[in-house]
């Protein structure tokens, strides 16, 4: 039984996975045969919290209880992990000949190599070329000849994943829909909800000293050197004097079993996130068996067992297995989302969760109070039993090195080696020791190669795709890369010489490392859609590194490989894909449900302060204010918090601009200025302290910050986080344009979308937009110079009029200028967009693009010279089309909604139209491919000046012939222009009048929950009071004197308050949210200062609802200056004869709704 499969109960469905042995291609390419065991459902993120708290299984609700067979099956978990051999062995030797080559071969954002030169190293860890028996001259010859390696029928390739992290799955539904589905699955006994802390650091992966150390998109640089050092130091802390031995055993274990571990690396030397950590540390977030097939991720109980066996740090984990606990978790987050820090968040979740597993490291002690967020995901129902079994069999291990001298710290080493990055890397690797890192070739190459670049030629990927696959894994990797290239996904496939295989290199046997670097998160979403169409596709992983071997075989051997490979692939295709897709693929969407929940105290620092620095210093305080207000609006931040944060951020802007002038503050060290400012601001009042979360005790990093080049920042740690998926949207509201304010109508479109014709129709419409404000239009093609500056100048002259900005507004830079104009001239703005379905990565469909091109090519005497006489008309439209690339239609519309509050759609295509003719689609696809090649090679150069000039001329001609040859179709699919004008005018008039609501973008607004209560309808309360007053004249007199019926606008019975009863108490009502609750009133209490009804709560679905208040009641009225909470004293006042109690017999029952406020 495999390590992973032993965690599953006997009755659980198992994957059918091949026990693939690598085909022995030659003596140089042979690898150790390792079986690929079956694995549990993929699981994600794990991290830290302190040993003091103990895990606590709670009683399960009666609605579901694990079967005894399931519980007993989990007992087998101890046996497989116990077989993880820890026998003493000789540290693995670096057997490959090595030579000196410059470090830093990582994919850059532009897809090119990131290479710097280096001189020869004298490191003791470097192994000379002579030791491997390969002369540097021969290696140089192989490297130079590699581009001429030709693929023929005897060329084969073997590819193996070397390190990877979880796929980046995005829920198809909104966060609120995902939350609801998660609760449903838990309540029906289908799954558990698992929640982990989100530490604020960088991804680090380790596959053994030969397997390599990797960051998210790179290897062989300071990121991975820091990761190796921190990992080595963790072994010293855990194992003490045994550390060197255990490091070597761990390396050997990872190599023999082809396992990689993923960690969240949290340090103060790699740039600022939300808070500088007090200590440098890491927590294991994933363990992956790579085998010789598809990566298989350990479940969370397996990760805990693995880490405790090797004494590696784990995250704080909570499991929620009942409807009540799962609902309470989300309610707790909603209560803490705007002011939560590590201590109250962990305390609340400990009280709510059914199982709480503290991490190895206390977030407060090593990171601090500022908590980035939580990650919630669906896991198998058996996970609770498995986790309990692991915790019984694997207690928290001791830390034998706590009292020992562990040598210089990471910060001390970086501080002592400040000359350059290479020196820091060398010092870190030498300090960690040979037992942990005996081979430095990933960083410094191999001696003797005269600074030969490790960057392989670009043809390697093409040859890899052309060669025959030797096994299933290679075939699936080829399929993935081929699809991504065919779909033009924004990703780089960079190949580098694999220096761990130098001793096996020959002209016919080449070894590479491939880095799959996804440049845009939209690629993951688009690839996910491809997986829905083809569930046999492997997932697109984050942190994706592949070992590639290209080799020639003799005719006889080639025939054997081809025959064996075909048989193997046929067997696997028939058996594996059909059985595994339902579990591993996206056929079962529920298995991938996950939601990230971040806290405002973290986002304040990273998104509002750090990411706003460029806007603040480049565009000034006004633009900065627009930026941070838009961010908070997108997040759904409560109005009170927006007001508080706005005041603080305005003060920050003045403070930092006054101190730095026009010299920008570095985002990598922004906390050096932000943290002291926040600390002083927090000290002014308790409300400021709650707003900031925590401040003070700043860790000074200037003397030990790792030397990082922002231009070569492949990991993105020095860049702004370009927004997040908001956990909530702007609220749905009516956007009214006051008559004293202006209106800017603009057009995020493409030439040919009929904006100029539309503007003329609007100008000629009697009465304009129906509110008598003057209209004027500025046509972009007739204005020289800076168009948007001209619009701003004209608006300042007459700010109350309606401006038709007759120019395409295709990107966020223009939108930002329009937002600034709105602020400076007191105007609203409304975008008018052509209505189109869009594609996976563009808001405009190919049908729409074809129509736009067809219209442009029919123009004559166009003011901007973009008409049928333009030789590059097709190219220009493709350029505009690609300005929108990377956004789906929904993302495009949502962003416009969130920025401007409304959106007008101009009808374009008939819904019942015929499909686009094949010839038209083909010529458009050809143009898109040509544009991307031209852009990649020549940037924004004109098509006539590049190496594709002839291709462009030929394509432009084919485009015209094809479009005019299909003129009948292109004319037939368009809606009549008169109809489009009528629809746009109606929508614009609705915006001007305030009748148009901002559509729901599918995201929910989470407020900052303060209390839970049963909401009552005022009219029902008034009816009750009238019945009481009919029987009691004193009550009637009291009601008339206080005019209570007129003043009663809302009423509720408070159940629990965050301040008085705690977050967990408030959150416990989450399971009943929006449910109707019967409330019986049996007495009226009143004095000359207040009045309240005594309440008795009923049940929901048979479960009694109880208030945490000592006296459940509904406050009806208080005199001016009397706080509503004073109503709690009425029973005592009545007992003392200072208040009147009027019984209500029989009690009157009113139905209310339970909700949060």
TrEMBL record:
Region Disordered: start-end pairs = 34-72
Any GO BP annotation: tRNA splicing, via endonucleolytic cleavage and ligation
UniProt lists compositionally biased (Low complexity) regions at 60-72
Name the domain of life. Eukaryota
Which is one GO molecular function term here? RNA ligase (ATP) activity
Matching PANTHER family: TRNA LIGASE 1
Put simply, this protein is called tRNA ligase phosphodiesterase domain-containing protein
Taxonomic source organism: Digitaria exilis
